[in-house]
Specification:
Blueprint (H helix, E strand, L loop, with lengths): L1 E6 L10 E12 L2 E13 L4 E2 L4 E2 L11 H33 L8 H12 L13 H11 L4 H21 L10 H13 L4 E3 L6 E3 L2 H9 L11 H20 L26 H9 L6 H16 L3 H4 L7 E2 L2 E5 L10 E5 L2 H9 L14 H14 L5 E5 L6 E5 H4 L2 H16 L2 H8 L16 H9 L3
Antiparallel strand pairs: 1-2, 2-3, 4-5, 6-7, 8-9, 9-10, 11-12
Helix pairs in contact: 1-2, 8-9, 9-11, 9-12, 9-14, 14-15
């Protein structure tokens, strides 16, 4: 095998350079001499080409009578010629190397041209790693991030909202190109999505009144029709997207962080309200014999008031969670970051309730129904028990304060507030109460469960007497 070089007779009008041509002499194959020619893609001035040797002349002499500028130009040309010569030598070495690694029957003109092209323009043959699409990455996040089942469902709701936003805005979400403007547009979408639906006065069924949006919602539906979202709800959605983005950055999926200059607003909460111990007992002792199924859910609510857990944790309880006169569990919401066992001793009423349903044959601790029906039952039980006092609340949707009967806004979360609020009123130690409620020390969320009322303030001032 031998490689010879010649210079093309054609000269480029603009550069005044000609291309170096290569001739690969393979040798005899089946008794016939085989050789292939190809263009090197390397150019040199005919004046600097040694036709006899088939090499580039790099030795350009300077003289003492040359001006400094001329000397500089000559040196620059010498350097350029040397680089060109080195490139030619390297290309020839590459061809020889590939030749030795290739069966001779595969050596063709096309093979030679391919080797030259790959060497001269390697960027054309770089295998670019294709990044998974935005929602494929979101699926990776959901499958690889340690999330509780309820948290995973919340993220899936956010994912579907993003899919509808993409369809509605006729854009393609890309991890590398999402900006703070994209996030603002998504926030606005969350604020107005409910306006595309209307509820029938008679059937109470919701239907899409925007023909264009109907196709979007049909493609990515929700079990429940989107309702008007308050700022706190939107903040929660944006926080989850930020969590997803931080995971992407940590795992090398992108270097783009649209949240670097995007501020998520502070959530606004009203003064905490909860039922007193007296009201809880009033509810527990109310005669609901005419509504036996409602009485069961009333008992479950009172039990929740006595252990202070979230409804998601409550619904996971089995008889195995009762250990030596106490409920033991790891809060599902914080299991990702803080798998601390919460142990809440059972008082007499809590034990009485468990004893009442000791013969319940289900796998669960108590005869639970769906969370939605549970919340409806709580409201009904409050009304029948006469717990209907007016409370002032902060409407998270409108941002305004409202006065509402407590029975109309009662839900499973009120049980956790009842537990935390009444205990804090007795001991005034957030860390002590947090040991029973599952709040970590210094938790900002704790302030949403307790109120420093006038009686507590008076007790504190008396300490100065």
């Amino acid at each position: 095998m031998k490689i010879t070089t010649t210079l093309s007779a054609k000269t480029d009008k603009h550069t005044q350079k000609s291309e170096i041509l290569l001739r690969l002499i393979v040798g005899k194959v089946n008794g016939k001499a085989v050789a292939f020619r190809a263009k090197s893609r390397i150019f040199v001035s005919p004046e600097r080409w040694d036709a006899k040797e088939g090499t580039i002349q790099t030795d350009i002499r300077t003289t003492k009578i040359m001006s400094a500028q001329k000397r500089k130009e000559v040196e620059e040309e010498k350097q350029a010629l040397q680089e060109t010569s080195d490139n030619l030598s390297a290309l020839i070495s590459e061809i020889k190397s590939k030749f030795l690694a290739t069966p001779v029957e595969q050596i063709t003109k096309e093979w030679l041209e391919d080797v030259i092209d790959r060497y001269r323009f390697p960027e054309k043959y770089e295998v670019k790693e294709e990044k998974p699409a935005f929602f494929a990455t979101f699926d990776l996040f959901l499958n690889n991030r340690k999330l509780s089942l309820s948290r995973k469902r919340h993220f899936q709701v956010v994912c579907r909202a993003l899919q509808r936003f993409e369809l509605w805005s006729k854009t393609t979400l890309n991890l590398d190109t999402i900006t703070q403007e994209t996030l603002r547009a998504f926030e606005e979408f969350l604020r107005v999505e409910h306006s595309y639906f209307q509820q029938d006065e008679h059937s109470k069924k919701w239907s899409c009144i925007n023909k264009d949006y109907k196709a979007v919602f049909d493609a990515v539906p929700e079990t429940r029709t989107p309702q008007q979202r308050g700022q706190n709800t939107i903040n929660g959605i944006m926080t989850k997207i930020r969590t997803f983005y931080l995971w992407c950055i940590d795992n090398g999926k992108t270097t783009n962080n649209p949240f670097r200059h995007f501020k998520i607003e502070e959530c606004v909460y009203g003064t905490p309200y909860y039922i007193t111990i007296e009201e809880r007992n009033q509810l527990y002792n109310a005669d609901l014999s005419a509504r036996p199924q409602l009485a069961i859910q009333r008992d479950i609510f009172v039990f929740q008031c006595l252990i202070g857990c979230r409804v998601g944790d409550l619904y996971r309880f089995t008889k195995a969670n009762v250990i030596n006169g106490a409920i033991e569990y790891i809060a599902n919401k914080t299991i990702e970051k803080r798998a601390t066992t919460v142990r809440v001793p059972l008082n007499a009423i809590a034990k009485e309730i468990l004893e009442r349903y000791a013969d319940y044959g289900g796998d669960k601790l108590l005869p639970f129904i769906s969370e939605q029906k549970y919340n409806i039952a709580i409201k009904e039980a409050f009304k029948l028990a006469g717990i209907t006092r007016i409370v002032t609340i902060h409407n998270p949707t409108t941002g305004e304060e409202e006065q509402r009967p407590i029975n109309e806004i009662a839900s499973s979360h009120l049980a956790r507030r009842c537990f935390v609020g009444n205990l804090y009123k007795q001991v005034k130690d957030p860390n002590l109460v947090g040991a029973l409620s599952g709040h970590k020390q210094g938790s900002k969320a704790f302030t949403r469960y307790r109120e420093i009322d006038e009686e507590m303030k008076q007790d504190l001032v008396k300490l100065l007497e």
